[in-house]
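In response to the reviewer comment on reproducibility (Comment 2.3), we provide here a single inverse folding case reported in full, input and output, so that an independent group could reproduce the run without further information from us. The structure tokens appear first.
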């Protein structure tokens, strides 16, 4: 781990809360709100989230599966996300969510008219904004946890 954690302290609570009390709790609230207030379908939500986790390399994020009303994506879903271009496990919206996450993370300048035409053909403007904010949260906070080595000790509240 990159950060020295005082003995007996929870690493996540210490880094996200005590070290930067003016920023960390607000960041944590935003991160949790993505899960609590999403209107996106579970499969498209998880396709985008897992694609960012794969790109970030965040160990915790790779293992995490969002649960909604007792439902989670199937065990093979992460493999399908890796193969989003060719998998037959995804509908158009789910495939686009994985594609958008990847392009947002790796080539946001390359989001061209052809892509946006496909995206707006499947998602409303509100859904696009929500998905974009979610992807931004996962990219920033998953990468933060990975870079600082917190991903190996990360446990979300209540889990």
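Designed residues, in position order:
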């Amino acid at each position: 781990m990159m950060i020295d954690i005082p003995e007996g302290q929870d690493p996540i609570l210490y880094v996200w809360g005590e070290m930067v009390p003016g920023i960390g709790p607000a960041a944590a609230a935003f991160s949790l709100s993505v899960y609590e207030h999403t209107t996106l379908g579970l499969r498209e939500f998880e396709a985008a989230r897992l694609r960012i986790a794969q790109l970030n390399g965040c160990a915790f994020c790779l293992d995490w599966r969002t649960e909604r009303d007792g439902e989670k994506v199937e065990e093979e879903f992460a493999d399908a996300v890796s193969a989003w271009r060719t998998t037959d496990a995804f509908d158009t919206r789910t495939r686009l969510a994985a594609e958008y996450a990847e392009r947002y993370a790796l080539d946001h300048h390359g989001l061209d008219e052809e892509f946006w035409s496909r995206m707006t053909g499947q998602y409303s403007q509100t859904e696009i904004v929500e998905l974009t904010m979610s992807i931004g949260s996962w990219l920033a906070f998953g990468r933060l946890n990975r870079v600082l080595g917190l991903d190996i000790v990360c446990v979300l509240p209540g889990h």
